[in-house]
Structures are given as C-alpha cells and as structure tokens.
Amino acid sequence: MSAEIRKSRDVALLDALDGMPRHHFSGAVWRVTPQGRDPLLAGKSQSRWCNGTFDVLYTSLTRQGALAEIFALYSSQPVFPSKIRSVAHTIEASSGQTLRLVDLAALENLGVRTQNYSEREYGRTQEIADAAYFLGFSGLLVPSARWHGENLVLFTDHIDPEGLRVVASDADPIDWSAWRAERRGTAQE
C-alpha cells in the first residue's frame, strides 16, 4: 500500500470523533443514479466524504437534495451530460452508529473551512470521513453543500445489508432542464 494512501491519521481528530455520540438513524433517504444502476451499489470515490479507500453510499434526507447533489456533479463537467438518464430512488436506511455533524459549526470545530464548504475543497472532510470509518462509525449525517438540508453518507462495510432497502424508484427519468428551471433562486449555489 503506498504511503500516499496510508498516511498516519490525525490523533486529535480521532480523539474528538471518538468522544462524540453514535446515533441510530432510521428513515427514508433519496439517491439519484443513472437509469439501470443498482441504487444500493456503493463505491470508492475521491469526493467530499471519501478519500477513495472505502465504499460509501451518498444519500440525501430530501429528494430535492439528492437531485441538487447530482446536478452539481453533472454541471462540473465541461459539457452537461445530456445522454445520461437519471432516476431518483427512495431508500429505507438504518445506520446504527451514525456521526451527526449536522451544522457548519460542528464541521468548523473539526477544522473544516466552512466559508468554502460549497467549493470542492475536500481535504479536511476526507480526513474526517476516514477517521470516522476507522473508528467504526456506520455513516455521517452532514450538511449538504448543494441544498438546504442534510445528507446521509453511509459506510456500507459497516452496515448490515438488511439495513438498506429500495422502497421506490421513479418510473420516468429526471428532466434536468425542467428541474433547473424550477429551482432557480431556491438552492444554495
């Protein structure tokens, strides 16, 4: 394993997170995926709450939040990917040891530069997620950077497979042009 991937963890961060309560989350969350993809399929990524060394399942506590997150991802491409047909799914999720960091003050206390939270500065948030994963948390409840609300980021290695179940999937793909027109002025930019 390379030194770049397996550098030492911040001991002060580990201590801070280990002293935080572990909450049980149970409820409906939303996720948007390309049509035909299993909505429960997690993956390793270089993203806000993953450094690429463990599987995560990104979900949102609101349907609009899930749409906003994927819209932001698609919008970051040089050309908006018009051929991808995306579908929204409702998932029943249960996470027994969730770390709740539900406001920007909680993140700031852990060293996140919250004035830039909506930017793609992932270094400290990846360190927090890696430390939480290492400590055995099953997920993170965190503010969305793209919508007013919260995201539930699940560490699928730490969740009972019975704790995730798709309860509904939209029959029709998302019309991104219509969604963009509807949301003007209502989302965090």
Automatic annotation (TrEMBL):
Residues 39-170 form the RES domain. InterPro entries: RES_dom. It comes from the Bacteria. This is RES domain-containing protein. It comes from Rhodopseudomonas palustris (strain BisB18).
